Structures are given as structure tokens and as C-alpha cells.
Fold each of these.
Amino acid sequence: MTGDTARPRTADPELACPIAPVVDIVFSRWTTPILWALNEYGRQRFVELERRLTTITAKVLTQRLRQLERDGLVVRTYHPEVPPRVEYEISELGRSLAPLFATLADWSTANLGKVDQARLDYDAQARAGSRRS
Amino acid sequence: MTGDTARPRTADPELACPIAPVVDIVFSRWTTPILWALNEYGRQRFVELERRLTTITAKVLTQRLRQLERDGLVVRTYHPEVPPRVEYEISELGRSLAPLFATLADWSTANLGKVDQARLDYDAQARAGSRRS
DNA sequence: GCCGTTACTTTCCTCTAGGTACCTACTATA
DNA sequence: TATAGTAGGTACCTAGAGGAAAGTAACGGC
């Protein structure tokens, strides 16, 4: 129970970087796929999300959803029914990330190829032995 | 030597999320502070970066810089002088991330307070015992 | 009376990112 | 002679994130 909702806290390495806190909140592991799924497909139940993000485990999904709920990016609705039913949806605050994600998607389509090419070049150079015998 | 330049590869959990590859490249640990420092203060030597990102270790800094170099976001210049001198600067591709970082900074100033408030509310509710028991 | 379902929780285990510490080559300087 | 300084490389170790699997409550159905 201790520290369940506590953020891992990556210390203060980001002192030099004003965007570090946001990165910590928005781009920690699994958060982008979850937010994307909630934003794209609307309100969903736990199992729907679990099935959509095929490789996530229930434990981690719970952790991330709690974190996102605590940060106000996701709204959780619990229905105390016979088989419990819980629904998750993106909050207004979470939806305000949309333009950011759009910018990211734009950069992706425009430059991801360049990154791949850079990697090919780098690996070719490395294999050619230009760096260290 | 095996897998030094190889990306950790977070498997394929991000199948549902088109921006996942970019997140992997741009927002993996330490990359944003490094890119920010290079973009803000221009070309720098290894030790300058090390001192600026106060808590990073030399080993990790080397790893991240290699990774960024391989991805074409950072340019490394080696001067084979008496005491070795290496300079790092942001590449054109890296500089193309500037608007993205700007969007991020904007969202930060606008909404970081709301996240903090949401956390306070959530923690207060949790302490009030409304959830379980 | 047992199974199935949901949304977890808990326990145990593994794996690896990252930290510590020490090593390199080369020279200037004291 | 010894020490400092640069830009790492390398070996060892630990903490912690994340995975697997089982447990839980509460009820409906067979």
C-alpha cells in the first residue's frame, strides 16, 4: 500500500530542462498508447483497453490508469454492479493534449524516415570500421 | 560490444499508437534535457554537458549521446588533439523538434498547475477513505 | 455446489537500466 | 615523479520496473 500512487520520481536530473515535468507526466511508459486509445475510441471498460493494448498486463494497466486518474488526465467511473463495471474516459485536461499529439504525429510522418536513414548510415559507418579500428 | 548502439526496443506494445516510435526516440530518459541543453547553449564539449546535467553519470551521458548521434539528432565532432576534445551540437533534424518542444512548454505553463491540483484532490479523497474501507 | 465474469490485488520472480568504481592514452605542469 | 585533465570503455552490482500467475468479492446461471 505504501507509495502505490506515488510517482517513481526520476530525481531532479531535469533541472536544466523546463519541459521535463511534462515529459514525466505525459510520456512515461504506456501513457501515450492509453491516452491515444481513450481519445480515439472514447469511453471504454478495463478489459477493452487491456485487449486493445495487446501486450500490457492487467497489473501495469491498473497502475498507469491510476496514475493518469491522479494526474487528472483520465476519468474513472465505477459502477458497483454484479460483475463490477468500470469505465475510463479521457478528461478535458487530457483532451487538451490533442494538439501536442498532433504536432508529434506530424513530426513523425515528416522525419521518422530521416531517423531511420541516419541509423542506417551510422551503422554502415560503424561496420566499415571508421570508428576505432 | 554487442548491442551497444542497439535501441532497448520496448517490444511492440505501441501497436495501437502511431506516435509511439517518436516517443521512443525523443522522450526516452535524459534525451530531452540533453537536446534542450544543446539547443539552448549551442555546441558544447562532453564535460560541459556533464556539468550542466548535474546528476547524470559519464557512462549514461555517453550512451545517450551515441544514441542521439545514431538517430541523427546530434552531431559529434572529434578533435584528435593532445587532451582529446569532442564537441556535440544539435543537428538540423534535432532542431526541427523545436516547435514540438515549444508546444510542450506551452502546455506545461498552461496546465501543469491543473495536474498538481488534480493530484492534491485525488490524494485528499484517498485519505478521506472514500475508496475502499 | 461449482463455474464464469470483472476488475482488480498480491505475491513472487526476472531482467535490465543505471550507478560505482576503476581502467585507458596522452600530454602539460608542478 | 607524480598529478591533473579529457573522453570515454569496462566490469560488477543493485534497485526497481514490469511480467506471470494465483487470489478475491460478489453474484447469476447451470
Amino acid sequence: MIEIARGLIATNGLRSLKVRDVAEAADCSIGSVYNEFGDFDGLILTVNRETVRALTARLVAVPAEDPVRQLHGLAETYLAFAADHANLLRSLFEHRMEDDRPFPEDILLMVMQAFALMHEPMVRLLPDRNPEEVALLARMMFSAVHGIISLGLEERMVAVPPEKLRQQLAQFVDTHLVGLGISLDKARDGEV
Amino acid sequence: MIEIARGLIATNGLRSLKVRDVAEAADCSIGSVYNEFGDFDGLILTVNRETVRALTARLVAVPAEDPVRQLHGLAETYLAFAADHANLLRSLFEHRMEDDRPFPEDILLMVMQAFALMHEPMVRLLPDRNPEEVALLARMMFSAVHGIISLGLEERMVAVPPEKLRQQLAQFVDTHLVGLGISLDKARDGEV
DNA sequence: ATATATTTTGAACAATGTTCATTTTCAACC
DNA sequence: GGTTGAAAATGAACATTGTTCAAAATATAT
């Protein structure tokens, strides 16, 4: 059932997800969807939860030997996920809850965890800086990468081809690291 | 009537905009809204059009004497606009059209024009690089700024206070420019 | 003043999230 | 096997909301 909802979101976007379609595809009644997820938001959030879980799993799997390479890997992995599951990511970031119910804590935590994955390599690259400041830098870098990817893939706005985007992202990460005073060559070979 | 719709979006978000509310507030019938805008999307797009127009107007007004200062000004102006009109900007970037009707050409052009405002100062700062490459850099930088701001202001995700965000943005722009090999002090004083 | 065109209206319709009394299913017990 | 009571599934009915369109109201022309 979650599978079905995810498929519908992935192929046609969140807007085209209908309770009745899910129920019919799952060969059950409308009421059963409500018994399972409480309401429509509950269904969407369940899909979103799995989306961020899948994303985090991929990001965590990025090798961490070399911090610079890790940062590139995180950006590339994020891009690959976004390119493969554009609608699912949009559902995660753009869906507003009914009324103004609070965003579920656990999803928030997982997103934060994903954000924080850039923290460790950044600390390694900037051992002398205040860790709190580095945390902000990491979040900022993640946000920047997110922006580049999400706007870059936006079809409405003349999307950049993924391969082109991959190059741009790599360039962006390098540029930013250089700007932070990190020597790319050194980091890529030596230490650890 | 546009005014009313904008007010409703701005205060409660796009999701809470209802045709009936607009009609009632405008003291006219539901049908009149349709006569004026064709359909619901038409109304939203009209508001979005004015949003991007207002944003562009503010960005264009940023002084262009010094390219580095201009880039900072553009980022700060964008932040100020986003902080003041978070829901309107979200409506512009997140609204999906019914079915899959194409995104209106004129709005697309205006957004592109806004993107392109970073192009000129970047060309001035990187006179030796291929202008096409610089255009990509500019778009990338705009996307990064957009990402930092939109995620930064996202209340669901523990929003960064705007003042803090302002500092971070300035730092980001500086860092990126340094990474591109641009001397900030020189640029800030000399040449033109 | 009449006729024609234009605009406005809002009741009716369609799509869709939601509820809940009813039915069905299932498990436990005698 | 039959009885009983809890648990789960059902889908008709409802509420909200975008949309349509024949009719009414208004404006314009002659």
C-alpha cells in the first residue's frame, strides 16, 4: 500500500495522489486506508519517512576515508537520488501539512541527520575552527547543494542535464573548499 | 482581488487559498473570479507573476558600482524579500500546475532574468573566463543562495534566525568568491 | 425604447478527503 | 459446532472546494 502510494507520487507527483486510487490499486476500501494511516497526511508522511530513510541510507554509505572525496560523494549521491526520485524528494520538502499541524519529529530528526553528514568531514578539514561554526558551515553547504540540485533539476525552469549538473556540483564543492582555505590536492592524497 | 489573494497566500500559505474566500472578500461572485482569471491556477499565477516582478524590481535596484558589493547586495536583498514574503516565494517556486500544463513563459523569463542578475558582476570579477561558463557559475551561485535561504527560513526545520542567516550568507558569498580566485579587498576598493 | 451585446451571478456539478454505522472476519470459549 | 464478542474492513453518505453555465442583470447601440 505504501509501495503503491510511493509509485503514484514518483510517477505523477504528489498532487495526483488520490486516496481512491490507492485504495483501488491496493484492492481494498477507502476506509482501510484511513484505518492504516489515520488520514491523507499520514499516508504521505509514511512515504516521506521512507524517502528520507532511503536517502540517508545512501548518504551514510558514502566512503569516509578522505574527507574531500566524502564531500564530493555526498553531493553526487544526493544528486543521483534527486535525479532518480525527483517527485519523492519534492514531496518530502514541499508538502505542507493540513491546518498547521507540526512537522513530525522523527522525520525532522532524520533530515537533520542527513544535514549533519557533512559535518564530520568538514570538521576533519577544518580542525582549528570552532565546531559549532563548522556545524553551521556544514548545514549551509548542504543547503547550497540542495538548492543547486533542486533548482537544477526543475524541469519547469529549463533543467540542467544531470551530467552537466554533476560537473557543476563537483566544481562548486571544490570552489567552496578552496574558499575555506583547504588545499584539495593535499587532502585528496595524504593524511589518513 | 489580486491583492486579496496575495494577502491570503502571504498570511496562511498557498494551501489555504480558496476561491470562495477570495470571492467573498472581493464582494463578488465565484463566477467573477473565473471570468477574470480563467481558473484557479490563473489566479495563483497572477499573484506569482507579481511576486517575481516585485522581487526582480528589488534585485535590479541593488547598486552595481562594485561587483563584490553587488553580489552581497543581491543575496541580502533576496534574503530580505524571502523573510518578508516567505509564503509568496514558496507559492512561486513550489506551486505545480493542474494536469501538466506548461509553466507560463513570461514567469519563466522573469525568473531567468532574476537568475541572470548575478551574471554581470561575475563577468566583471572573472573577465578572463568563458562568458558561458560564467553564466553557469552565476546560475549555480543563485541556486546555492536560494537553497541556503529557503532551507534556512523553513520553520519546520528549525529555522535559522534571519540575522544569523544574513551573516552566513555574506560569509558564503565571500568564501565562494575567494574559491574562485577573487581578492575581496582589491575588488571592494579599486577598479570602477 | 428596443434590441443586442457584455458582464455578473450563483445554483448545480464533479472531484476528493473524511466519517461512521454496518457488515464481515476472526478468535476464544463452551 | 455453535455462540459470543472483539477486531477489522467496508462503502455509502457527507463536507469541502474547484468548475461550469444557463439565466439574470447591466451596459451599449440604434
Amino acid sequence: MEAAQKAFFDTYTDFQCFMIAQVNKGDFNGVGATHYNIVEYLYRNGPNTGKDLARKFHISAPAISRHVKFLLEKKLLAQKQTAEDRRAFLLEVTEKGKQLVNGSETQRHSVTTRISRQLPKKELEQFTRMLQKVVDILKQEGEN
Amino acid sequence: MEAAQKAFFDTYTDFQCFMIAQVNKGDFNGVGATHYNIVEYLYRNGPNTGKDLARKFHISAPAISRHVKFLLEKKLLAQKQTAEDRRAFLLEVTEKGKQLVNGSETQRHSVTTRISRQLPKKELEQFTRMLQKVVDILKQEGEN
DNA sequence: TGTGAATAGTTAACAAAGTTAATTAATTTT
DNA sequence: AAAATTAATTAACTTTGTTAACTATTCACA
């Protein structure tokens, strides 16, 4: 492996280790990371069915089903049967759910805030641009 | 939230979504992602103790203990008690373990290769430097 | 030098969150 | 109308993390 690529690989590995460790720690009074992500997604993208969520988050229907059940019990989501297909339910975020999203200091918030504080603004902007480029590359191939 | 920080937050969120979806898919004939990461880490960085691994991967000692037990059974690692401290064991990668690492195209490999190919070398180096800085920031606070 | 505190690792019991297989009810296809 | 497909659920299981309690060893120091 070429030197620049090796250096990148090592750093990326380090970063990934951190992220993995980090990502599974989002827990707001018993609302886990995936729970939260579902609520946030529905908040930002409007009502969707369970099937949609499974596709979006790349997890199985039963996994979504359990998450949704939990979120309904917590009154963070509400569901209503669709008229066109009575098997399907549109899930939408309740007021309480919206408050959760608005009030939550996620790890993502805390991490990005920490980084924003410690990098000079110019560098932060540059890093953001480059990270965006990387995300674009990753998405490109994700489409296949 | 300030504009530069908001832009960073959004991009980071995007990136994190991608990572979460990808990260847990590494499984080579029953050797899970964390198993593999441990073997690779020891291969690239030389023998380390369980304690070191727990620190490196940000997971608890018992979790490491179980992973190591599995990897010893699979003969991917070998251990030897250290002379200086008879509580501690140095873990090192066996030939079989090295073969696993050399023969595996991990997610991380494929991702970093894709990025390396599509970014001009100079940009890749720059991105690596900045990502390293970010990792350092994250590590700093991890120490508290 | 002996003792109490700290440390490396393990075991046990548990929790969270994913999986597949099977079931139900509704819809679509033939 | 019957057969196949689909959205959602339930049940049983797996993986992989956690904390608490334990053993064996080492360290600090009165």
C-alpha cells in the first residue's frame, strides 16, 4: 500500500474506532441511539411507514417493529393506518417527540461542538468541505 | 448555532449515518468485526495486553476478555505471560491470524481505497492531516 | 517488611439490538 | 376465485456490549 494511502487508512481506522465507541452511547432517558435516530428522521423527513424506515436504516422489519412499538409506548411517535393500504401505518412524530429532538444534546452535537471549538474557523470550513467530498464519494458507490 | 458549525454538524451527521450502516457488516467466516479489528490492530502494532486493547477500542475489560478467548480458541492469537507482571498477558498474532488479515478485504479497506482513488494525492494528505487533528481532539477529551 | 489499595484478567448475570422463521391480514396477480 | 406477494408482528435466538463480584499479583508506604 502506498504511503499516503497507508497514513489515511491508519487515521481513518483510529477515527472509526472512536465513532463506533461513541455511536452506541446515545441514550436519552432510556431512548437508545436507534430509537432517537428514527424519531429525528421522521421529524426531519415527515411521516413514513415502517417499511420505509427499515430501508432507510438498513435493518430488518422486526427490528423496526420493536423500535416503533417502544416509541409508541413512550408517546414519541403516533401512527395511523393509511387509507390506500390498510396493512401499512404512517408513523409521525408527536409534540413530545419533537421536544425530544429539539432538546437533545446528542453525542453528535457534543462531538461537533468540541471539534468546532478547537479548530480555527478556516480549518473547520476546510475540513467540512473535504468531509463533504468524502461523503459524496461514499454515496456515489452506495447507489450501486 | 453558527453557520460554519452548522455546516460541519450536517456533514458529520451524514458521514456518521454512512458509517453506522457500514461498520457492523464485517464478518469473515464467523470472525466478527471487533474480533477482526483486534487481530488487525495487534498485527500492525505488535503485541499488546488486554488492558491496552480495552483502552484502544473503548470497550470494557470483560468484553475484551471474551473476544480474546474466542480468538485464542480459533488460533488467531497466542498469548504469553509477561515476566515483569505475571497478571498480564501479551497477545500476539499467529501465522493463521496474519493470513486472515492479509486475505481480508474489510469495509475499511474498501472505503479508504475508494476515497484514496478519487481524491488527488495532495488532498488526501491534507485530509489525513486534518482528520488526525480531529482524532487528537477526540482523544484528548476521552482521557478525562 | 507486612498490609492495604490498586491493577489485570476472568466469570456470571444481564440488556440492547440485531437476526431468521413463522403468522396474520390485506393486496395484487393470474 | 385462488395463489402469490406484501406490511407488520411475534417468537426464539445470537452477538456483543455492560456491571458486579472474584482471583491473583503488584505497588505504596508506615
Amino acid sequence: MESSKTTEDHTRSLLTRLAGPSTNKAGLQSVDKEKVNKIIYEVSKGSAFFENEVKRDAAVTEKINSMLSNYEKIKTQDLTADLVIVDTQLIELDQTRDLSQHICHIDMDAFYASVEERDRPELKSKPMAVGSLGMLTTANYEARKYGVRSAMPGYIAMRLCPQLIIVPNDFAKYTEVSGQIRRIFEKYDPDFSPMSLDEYVSTSELTVEAVIEQIRDEIFRETGLTASAGIAANKMLAKICSDINKPNGQYLLPNDRYAIMEFIAKLPVRKVSVFALKHETVCKSSVASRLLTGQIYIVLGYDISGIGRVTERILEALEVKTCGDIYTQRGILYKLLSPINFGFLLRVYLGIGSTKIESDGARKSISVERTFSTLSKEEDLYNKLKEIAMKLADDLKEENLKCKTITIKLKMPSFQTVTRSKTICRYIQTGHDIFKYDAELPVSLRLMGLRASSFISSDDTQNMGLKRFFSSIPPSEMTSPSKKAKTYPASQENELDRDGVDLIKITTNDDYACPVCTHVLKNIDNTQFNAHIDICLNTVELKTILTTQRSAIMPFSSTVIGHEIQHLSHAYLIFLRPSTTFSSSRKSCSVSGTNEPQHSPSPKLTTATGSSSLLNYFGNSSRQNPG
DNA sequence: CAATGAAGGACCC
DNA sequence: TACCAGGGTCCTTCAAGT
């Protein structure tokens, strides 16, 4: 029977995929998932989105199959030696267990929807969701009975529940309520308000549970909203526990090794999500607090990861359904998964998670993206991108950040998504062949986005200018100029330009080849020359990264792209016209969502990633080909 | 032979 | 009627350069 699982399994996984990411949320347990999934399937069948999901599902299937064939081989092997290694690892991990404190995760129930209900009580008894017909952000519990949930397109929700009321998002309002809640927490946090601390906590008779109840109660009195809480020994467990008695309830998992192991063993892997505190985000509905011997530290914001649809499928194929199964299958998992993923699973199995409140806040990237009804005209696309770039530039300015890397993201009407990124100094130094842009190739897009990352201090920007450019690029590499150089003139107040461009001294009026576009500029003086360089640097038409860098990986069916980059304030404006038919030949990644930023607050992330990646590679290959 | 950049995904809310 | 978001983080794989 194992071998005859073909189309049936296929549709099943597809149905699950289409059902969306949040099918296990509170309030959804009682719905007839089969039926709901079927309706979702019927409604979306044939759409571009659907077709794209089919592809992605197939990719996961393929990956699983290759894993399974490996699995078959390994099954017959003697894993004794491996088990010794794994069990040693388990013992070591167990010794890191920290049961010295309680950590509590407080989660607002259906936050946006609850706010709307509070303001319009008549909605309480009716199925209601917040969002638009395009996409819902959340649904109240009445609506969840019909299978309506967050991240579901509104029009599909309407099929599931025709009487559904959809209320538009009102983020300003939610932010305000977040502020209210936050102020409540501040009262409990000694760092914010030491005075009121005694008022609430020093009555040491109060149990942890009582304190949390009190906090939830106060939230309710203050905002009219309910919250749920999980109290446990670490962040991971606290997060999981907060879901158990949702809505408007709390759950305490005792700080006892046995209790924890019992609890986790029965837990379906999909329930695992890991709560890690990151930079402070006000407009979120989750709050974590830590109770430590009479003190409470409140931290807002989160960074949550977990085991999602894909990982669940992979694990299921490896016969791991509950966290307890991780132990049973540990030998296989050790052989098949990357060390990082495997280590994560071991910690899950042991119920070990981070207990730190490292509010290591530095944010790593800022992005802006917009979906729109399909645009095809170059001009429209350009304008849209310009808007996005302006917005991103504003955001950067607001955060007082400068970036080194810009990533553009494009989504075709087919939902195929491509991203292209460039770090500025490299971009300038490398001086990609400039591409004479080819025949008009209108491409349609449904989304464009820009992301800024690799933030740099202004010191770093000093050495990235033309000097460096000049010194490292042989003139022969420069090619023809952008036809459009003057169409998109440089923006006036361009800080990055100022920082990045050193003026070039030319002593005599002469012919001079522009290093960027290689045009020979006749008889110009310093000022004119510099002006020209400015324009060229601001608007460079690249031979597309797509052709030069990706052709080896992704076969292109037709001609490619004009690609322009324009400085716009802090941001770069990138314009591309890719061919519509990228065929991704990539294999999908392995088990992910396994990232609880462990201990060490911020030791070189890049290094960590790099080396683990290598470790991974070597580790896997040596283990997977054992003889 | 480490370090790095780029592209693509998975996951969360 | 309407036809699948936007903002982040981290992980993995590839490829190329010294």
C-alpha cells in the first residue's frame, strides 16, 4: 500500500496547501476541514494562484521523494554509532535546561477582530472578519466556525460563509490599542515603573498564575479585549502554551522536567512554534513577559518561527507526527536533516528553549512592497516602482539608516516571484557589462517591492565612491550608455550620492571617456564631467543580472530585460523587464522554520550562517554517502 | 578552503 | 461584482574569487 500512494496523496497535500498556513488556529478545531478544503479547492481551481500552488506543491513532493529514497537506504543500515552520537547530544542538551524561572507569553485573542467588535458590539454575534475581499487579516470566532481565518482571501471566505461581514483594516486604531496595552505592561515592569511593582507583585502570596490573571484582567478592563497566556519555563513552551486555552484563558506548564516531556511528547509537531524576542514592535498583538523571582520584565515584539505546512509534510513522511516521534526517529532524522534542523528538533523534543530576553534590537532590513492589478506598460511600472522607492527612502530616513544592499522583488501575474539584489559597492565596482536593451518586451506584474538591507554607517560610505570604482574597473569593461540616462534625472538631495561619489579632477578640457557609460565626452570641463558622471551613476542600464548571472541556472525562453538603477534619495530605483517565463530549476530547501535564535546575542551572524552552511554540506555528504 | 553575495523558500502575524 | 497582503528573520544552495 505504501507504494500506491500517488494521485490521492497528491491531491491531499495540495488541498492542505491551498487551505493556507493557519488551519490549526484556535477556534478552528471544530470545523469540518475536509469540507472547507474542498470548497477552497473548488473556488480557486484554475486560477493563476492555484496553478502556482500546484507547482510549489509538486516541488515539495519531489523533495520528499528524494528524501524518502534516501530513507529507504538508511533504514537498512546499522545506526548504532549514530545513535550514540545523538544520545550524547541529547544528554548535553538536557544539561542546558533552565527551569529557574517562568516565562509568560500573552497573546491577544483575534486582535483586530476583537477591536472591531468592541467598537461595534452588534458584530459580536455575527461572523465577521477584518481585511478586504482580497485578503483577510483575522476573523472573529463566530466566523472561524465556518473555516474562515486569517490570511484567507475575502472572496473565498464569502463562499464559506455568505453572511460574513468584512470590516476594513484600521491600523491606526490597532496601534492605539497596542499602546494602551503596552502601558498596562509598563506598570508591571520594574524598568519602566519600579513604584507600581510592589503594588502588583511584592505581595508574594500571589502565584505566577494569579499575577498573569490580574494582568489579563486589567487588559480587559482597560481595553475591553481578552488575552490568552501561556506560562512555562522557556519562550518556546510559553508560546505553545498560550494557544492551549485560547481564547480568554491561560495555561501553566509546571517547571518540571517530567511534566514538560510528557506535555511535549503528545504534541503534534505542527503546534510547535518558537517565540524569540526581537526588536520592539508596537503594532503587534503579542506580548511576552518574564516573571523572575518577584520581578516582571515585559518585552514587546517577537520573532516567531515554527513548524509549518511544508515541514509538517516532510516530517510526516519520515513518520514523525508528534514531538515524541522525534525521539523514536532520531537516528533517521540525524542522517537526513541538516545539523541545524536536527538540533532544533532535539530541543523541541526535550522542550528546551531560550530563556533569554535579549532585546538585541537592530533591525536587518526594511522593505516596501505593493500588489496591484496587473500592469504591463513600462511607464506604469516605472511610476509604481518610483512610488515604492520613495516610500522606502522615507522609511530609511525615518530610521536614519543607509543601506548597502537593495533587493527588488517582482511577482508575475502567474505568481512566479523573482528577486534581484545588489550591494552597492560591489555593484559599482564590478561594473557589469552594460546591456544595450533589447526589443520591447512588455511584461506584466502584479507586485513590486524593494528591500533595503546591509545597513552601513556613514563611515563606510566614504570609500565607496568613484575613486574606488576607477581604481578597480578596467576601462575595457565599460560599455555603451543608457539610452534613458536623461529620462530619469538624478534626484537633488541625494545623500548617498554625496557620500558615495568623489569628485574627479580633470585638469584640462579634453575628450574623456565616461567610466560608467564609456561615452567619449568631447571638450568638457570638470563640472560638466562630474555632472555627467552623476547622471550615469544615477541611472545605469545594466546588462541584466538575469542574463549574466542566472542563465546558467535558469534557462530563459526569450530575450531579457532592460535594467535600470536610479538613485532616489537613499534608495535605488530599479526597473526591469524580465521575460515572463522563468523556469525555476531550483530544488526547494530542506526543513526550515527551525530558527530559534539561540543564546549568544549577536555573534557574527554571517559567519555563523556561512560556517554552518559548510558544516552542513560536508556533514551531510559524508554522512549520507557512508560507504 | 573559508568567506561572501545572490536567489529562493519557509514561517510568523 | 470583487478573485490570495505586507513586513520581517533565518536557512540553504550555488558559484566564484584568492
